[in-house]
Amino acid sequence: MSDIREMMKEKERIVIKIGSSSLQHEQTGDLDYTKLDVLVRELCDLRNRGKDVVLVTSGAVAVGRKAVMMQDIESDDKTSVKQACAAIGQARLMMIYQKIFAEYNQVAAQILMTKNTIIDNLNRFNAQNTFEELFKLGVVPIVNENDTIATYELGIGDNDRLSAIVASLIDADLLLLLSDIDGLYTDDPRQNPDARYIEVVERLTEELMEMGKSTTGSSAGTGGMNTKLQAAKIANNMGVDMVIANSADIKVIHRILAGQNIGTLFLAHREEGFDLPLYVQQMHD
Ligand code: GLU
Fold it and tell me: Could you give the dihedral angle defined by the CA atoms of residues 131, 132, 138 and 143, in that order, rounded to the nearest 10 degrees?
């Protein structure tokens, strides 16, 4: 086990995904600046250690709703309303990230993606090139789905899978999903006190995938355990290790990369026949 964790120290290209619920104060739904600050500081420190770092962040819709004071997510989930909120919120979110990254003397860039970015060969190629150039420039790409134009057909839908797709696209060696849960359990620990925590998943079985289907996430984001396991499937098949860890303390980022046994580790096993563009094209909820 410790050997497996030791290899975390060698990771050079890392994608970190943070969900809306981890960025907001539970009581008000407003952004948690303290957490955002720690997150950005951790990322900048990874950059300072010479690693390539990508942040996949949610929050566009949630921040947009707050900005125009449409708090109640459930009451108005018309696509056009969500898309308008995303247009408002994404810009605001980036403004905040830019500001904090600048405080640490780090340049951040924005990349917004849809399914088409992966399915279309030219788009995919362009996206890959952009990421590579940004890494060469020492910049931290900040990725979200282009919610403003992504409809159900075009959309990936959740940032768990989006982050796995990004990690695959750029040939990352680690995907770190920061969530409101410690890792994978044999059942939903919030409902079943006998649920057992799983430290490492050497191979994702159908049984595990099924297990994830019954769990749902928080109201702020769109991902429950199901989308996290799907993300693990994409990442692992594409040769990327994945860790799910609790975002309650954002500093787990450097601890995990120092080899500490935190979160559930899903080990990569490259599946030669796995076709990412085809998989994305056929993806559904
Ligand atoms: N892309 C959405 C947003 O930024 C969130 C998707 C998710 O929560 O997984 O609001």
Answer: 10
